Every structure is written in structure tokens, then in C-alpha cells.
């Protein structure tokens, strides 16, 4: 088999896969008392995205 591995047009030797990729489980836990927006905001905050208070 012949080919090459790339990520966003960067060849494998130009980036560190361990720093640019992650495994994400498909088992999603949803808190039924939260709205969709609250769930997305909560998920983003857990990942370090969004406002910090």
C-alpha cells in the first residue's frame, strides 16, 4: 500500500498527532433538566471554551 498521512494539509512529520487529536467516546450523558443551550454551554466550559468566571 502506498500513500501518505496528512492533517489539514500538514504531513505526518510536520505535526504532533498526540497534541492535535483525541479520542471522544460516543456515550453522551445528558442532564434532562438542562436545555440544549445549557448542555452545549456546559460541555464547552468543561473543555475550556467560553467565558471564565
How is this structure best described in words?
By secondary structure, this protein is of the alpha+beta class. The protein has a domain at 23-53. The protein has helices spanning 17-20, 36-46; strands at residues 6-7, 10-11. The protein has a two-stranded antiparallel ribbon. A hairpin with a 2-residue loop joins strand 1 (6-7) and strand 2. The longest helix has 11 residues, at 36-46. The radius of gyration is 17 Å and the shape is elongated. Keywords: Transport. InterPro entries: P-loop_NTPase (IPR027417).
What labels describe this entry?
single chain; about 55 residues; alpha+beta; about 30% helix; transport; P-loop_NTPase
Measured between the Cα atoms of the first and last residue, the distance is 51 Å
Query: What topology, given as strand order, has the largest sheet?
Result: 1-2
Q: Element order, helices and strands? A: EEHH
Structural class: alpha+beta
Assess the beta-strand content as a share of residues.
5-15%
Write down the Rg. Answer: 17 Å
| Low-pLDDT residue intervals, each spanning 5 or more residues | none
Beta strand count: 2
Number of discrete helical segments: 2
Instruction: Specify the biggest β-sheet.
Output: 2 strands, antiparallel
Helix content estimate: 25-40%
Oligomeric state as shown: single chain
Overall mean pLDDT stands at 80
Give the overall shape.
Answer: elongated
Amino acid at each position: 500500500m502506498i500513500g501518505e498521512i496528512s492533517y489539514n494539509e500538514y504531513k505526518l512529520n510536520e505535526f504532533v498527532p498526540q497534541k492535535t487529536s483525541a479520542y471522544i467516546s460516543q456515550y453522551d450523558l445528558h442532564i434532562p433538566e438542562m436545555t440544549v443551550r445549557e448542555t452545549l454551554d456546559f460541555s464547552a466550559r468543561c473543555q475550556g471554551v467560553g467565558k471564565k468566571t
